[in-house]
Amino acid sequence: MADPVLLSSLRIPAVRSRPSSTCLQWSADGQVFFVSNSAVYILTPHHAGIHPGCNVRGDKETPCTLQWSRTIINLEKRDLRDWSTGSQEWAALSLGSFDFHVKDVACSPSYVTEDGGCVAAVLSSNMDLSLWSASKNSIQGEWIKASVFDATPFLVDLVSNGASPPVLSQLLQAQITSIAWSRQADFAIRPAPCTDASLLAAGSRAGTVCFLRFDGRVASLHHIRTVRVSKKWVTHLAFSSWMHEGDFQCSGLLAYSTSDGSVGLAKIHLMAQNATKDFGTFNPEYIVDTAFEVTEGIFSADQGGTTALEWITSQERMILVRCRPGAIDLWRNQSVCSWSGIRTLTICPHVLSVGSSELHPVTGIVYVLQEDILLVSLFDGTMRVIHKVFVDPQWSSESPSSLNSQCLSEAVRRIFVGTMQGIEQEEVTNNDVNRISGLISFDGCATLLWTQQSFRPADLSWKIEARRDAVLIAAHLSRHVNWTGDNFFHELKEILTSSQSAYGVTPSHLLRPVFLWLSELPDLHVDILKFLRSLPVSCPSQCHFPPWSEGLGEKLRGKFRKSLVRSLFGCDKLLSLRLRLYVTEALSRCIRTPSGRTECIQVAEFICKMISHMTTRCLLRHLRTVVPVLIANDMPFVRRAIYLSSLADSPPAVQSAARDLMDAISALQPPIVSHARLCGEVAMTEPCPACGEELDTTATARPACPNGHLWDCCAVTSFIMATPMVRSCTGCKRKSFLPLSRQSEPAMPNWLPPMAQSWVVEELLEASSRCLYCGNNFVSIV
Ligand SMILES: [Zn+2]
Ligand SMILES: [Zn+2]
Q1: Which of 55, 92, 319, 486 is deepest in the core (most CB within 10 A)?
Q2: Ligand 2 centroid to 624 CA: how many Å?
Q3: Which residue has the higher pLDDT, 146 or 122?
């Protein structure tokens, strides 16, 4: 095996971490959640020279290729619930309140909050559940508790069913001992409905699992169902991926483990249904019905208990991985496959230091699809590799060139020795144990990310305890066996053309492997550019909506916004273009030659234009529908949309949609704008916010007035931004006005310029919760 390559070592001082397979996890926004004893660290990698934060520099630890930004979720002890107020019984007390710490985190899918981000469910040792989301800046800013909502009182109210105080058996149902959040489901509806179908499962001390769904609009949870699965505590939960079952239906499995070590399954069915019976004016809205059935147990009670529970998926095939001290059990039920039922692999001892033991808990489970291998890390810093997982799982492999447990463990140990000697300036000996408390894959292959902590079991001095730092390591442990440019292009094409908007995953999460390779494969840059240029573009066909007939009001605005969201962010072809743009812009930063950079910029401009034509076309279609309720205030924006769509380089479909809209507005009685004003070039001029001189906003990206005042234009509405109430894209840095709903106090004046004070502009800003160009999330400062 080739030597491991260290990409980054980020030190997180004075942190005690807990061994668990969920200690490190990726959110669908491309952030790493690291669960330590006292806080949850949220780390964001910088890709290919792109700093995702606002303007602040990231952490600089070592001169490695990969850098990080970070922020934290701080759980305060004063927030913990006193369970004795609900019941005086001994059984209701929580010992976790004495040694208060973060126990687990479950990240929601992305695109569930109002600003298109994730929510983190945080479980404390006191069995309190709380929900957290970013207030303004998810990368470097503060994460706050969902303000109007606290999950534990909600659960107590739920179980007590109106009776107060709740009896002991009810209170135990509100004491949460394990959590898991499912991924988003794809019902194969296009454009994707952008309806949250994901479920938060909360296992309790009473042996029940409570299924909840997050409502981003009001930042609260809805109770879906509580299912009793056991009489013991529910200690582990793991959702499988959703499988599409046809006719707007999906199904998935929730595996649960209880305190006696037994494991069982609950089957979940999701059905998407039209929210209203009649077909309305806009894109139809959907609601998700959910049904449950508890099926048989898989593993019976086991003395050691479960230490990790996870599903691995390969092309619609699934295996449940259950770890217990000294063994790994695999379970699979599809009988048509090469194996089914239970396979148990006993973990052999592997001594790397004085603390090595095969009985340590498993702290990371990584499945590498390309090679059909399962990498497993133990708390003692050793690694194990299971080969041919879906064919015939076994420890050893016939091929001498492939990864094996011994050499992978030694590679991890070499990195530990190298990095610790750099930090501690002491020699690392056999007495130093490398505690790996969590391990995940960085790129879906064997570029791994783990947390290491040095520990000397024989040294009892307080100094060692006090100096406990966690180090987050990213390293290539092995390349694909047949790693070539062809593989890279195959993977790139797969991501660019097959990614589905229904999952709501951000481009920065999807493209992380590509960005890693971009900086490491400079020889391929010219070919990558050729490839990006050669990918075909197709516009989805669009049918007309019937005109709106019910007048202007909240009902129209809500439907208009939801329909826009679905058209702008539920379209796979638009997502594919956004991914291409993001790769091209990243490439322009990595490419060495000036001519290559110029060419990159040309390709990026071309893709930008395509995106802008597709979004304008969907906007024109929505505007055409609401012509009967347009008013004079809406005209400056409508004129801009018409002007930009009528330019010579617009595709015929966009030009004809603009003409259609123009004719419909001209036919309005009484007229709200003259035909001449509707299509003239004057559409793009705007008074300078400083001196009032007219300035043309089409000329450059940053227009200047005759007196030299320079302005940024909003990437969503094209109006000049002379306000601090703006947001900036974490991917491409384009800026846009903050939607008016983000006002921190009700009395705040409208920050949109007078020309943009139109309900259409307001709803477009609300609908654009992500960047229209590269599809990433926004962050704001104010
Ligand atoms: Zn001026
Ligand atoms: Zn962007």
Answers
A1: 319
A2: 27
A3: 122
